[in-house]
Amino acid sequence: MARTAVALPADLLAAPSTGPNFLIEQHLGGVVCGIDEAGRGPWAGPVMAAAVVLDPGRVPVGINDSKKLSAAKREVLYGEILGCAQVGIGEASVEEIDELNILQATFLAMGRALGGLPTRPDHALVDGNRKPPLGIPATTVIKGDARSLSIAAASIIAKVFRDHRMTELAKIHPEYAWERNAGYGTAAHSRALAIVGLTPFHRRSFAPIRKLMTQES
């Protein structure tokens, strides 16, 4: 039976002090995936998204908003989630970011992540307040990675997968220290841009990069 998006009760949208839980998923019923992205703000690299359907009986201990976890803990949970959950990963390239804008590219990555799941969920929980066109009922949850275990799991998968990708790109362009800054506009990244210039992996639609291109022209 087709499901429609629903308004969640206010008590489910309150951030639990003990960390994310499974209450929203249980309220919705059926197969629910959490969707989150990583890499909207960096100056370089693709934007990634993950879609995760957790098995309620096999939820790894310690899942939380990826930003609240150490890199080592994220890596451990990344492997555990991949080992016990349905996971889809999607990305949008630098070229797609520059052509579409970062919001639409993020939506594109989210749709690809959903399409990467082995089974199609009944409902999607999406972190934030902007709903992507997914083709299934979806509910946005502000600060969802602090509320929903499924979204928190997706935040870990997206973050770690993107960090791995930026580490690989850093081997091609080591001057920018992407293995440490993940393409964000750190002082080291800025200095390298001033000395070495742009790479094909820089987002030319982003203001700091456009400014540098103007100065070089």
Automatic annotation (TrEMBL):
Keywords from the named record: Cytoplasm, Endonuclease, Hydrolase, Manganese, Metal-binding, Nuclease
Cofactor: Mn(2+); Mg(2+)
Main location, first listed in the record: cytoplasm
Function of the protein: Endonuclease that specifically degrades the RNA of RNA-DNA hybrids.
One annotated GO biological process: mismatch repair
Compartments it resides in: Cytoplasm
HAMAP family in alphabetical order: RNase_HII_B
Species for this entry: Govanella unica
Catalysed conversion reaction: Endonucleolytic cleavage to 5'-phosphomonoester
Segments forming domain RNase H type-2: 30-217
GO molecular function: manganese ion binding; RNA binding; RNA-DNA hybrid ribonuclease activity
Protein name per Swiss-Prot or TrEMBL: Ribonuclease HII
